[in-house]
Design brief:
Elements: H1 2-35, H2 39-63, H3 74-97, H4 101-107, H5 109-123, H6 138-155, H7 161-185
Helix pairs in contact: 1-2, 1-3, 2-3, 2-6, 3-6, 4-7, 5-7, 6-7
């Protein structure tokens, strides 16, 4: 009995730590905005944020699955914090380095497509009751990595940022297709009030 209780509390602790690591990317994004013109400091913040992304995923996987009918906050919190951080980084890079908006839009293709899909799922009556799984997928993680690396290349003024921005866009589009397919195959529940 004690063993089960400690296992449950360990799962809760790992979940809490994973969520805190995700949330840490929000103030890191704000800090990035303030130092985007200082390449060394901005790169340090980018690396710390990347480490929090890796660590929160590791902690979440160590947590285990848990009951399938119980949603986990990390399933939506981690991608939300990723999006807020990426937005702050790209705004900071634009303001500090006047990066072409086309390049920045390529980097955030996934976020744009996910935003559109969330609006469609909330507005369309036939889709409103669908469950949408925010759980990470390898394509989504690859898109996030490509975004982080592209941002680093932009900070360093490297021309390789352009092809990698296209890779980010392709990976992001593929990830959104996976997420949309998850919602398509899940049965619709009762429509929200």
């Amino acid at each position: 009995m004690v063993r089960v209780a400690s296992r449950g509390s360990g799962r809760y602790t790992r979940s809490l730590v994973a969520n805190l690591l995700s949330l840490l990317r929000v103030p890191l994004g704000l800090a990035f905005l303030l130092v985007a013109e200082r390449t060394g400091l901005a790169m340090t913040i980018l690396c710390v944020a990347a480490a929090t992304d890796v660590l929160d995923g590791w902690m979440a996987r160590r947590r285990g699955q848990g009951p399938p009918d119980r949603p986990r906050s990390g399933d939506w919190l981690d991608p939300l914090c990723d999006k807020l951080f990426v937005a702050a980084v790209l705004v900071g890079i634009y303001l500090a380095h006047r990066t072409p908006p086309t390049l920045l839009l390529l980097i955030v293709t996934r976020e744009i497509l996910q935003g559109i899909s969330v609006v469609v799922y909330r507005v369309a009556p036939s889709l409103r009751g669908r469950e949408y799984s925010y759980r990470a997928h390898p394509l989504g993680k690859a898109a996030t990595i490509a975004q982080f690396v592209t941002a680093g290349l932009l900070l360093l003024g490297r021309p390789e940022a352009w092809p990698l921005a296209f890779v980010s866009a392709l990976l992001g589009t593929a990830a959104v297709m996976v997420y949309l397919n998850r919602a398509r195959v899940r049965p619709a529940g009762p429509a929200p009030l």
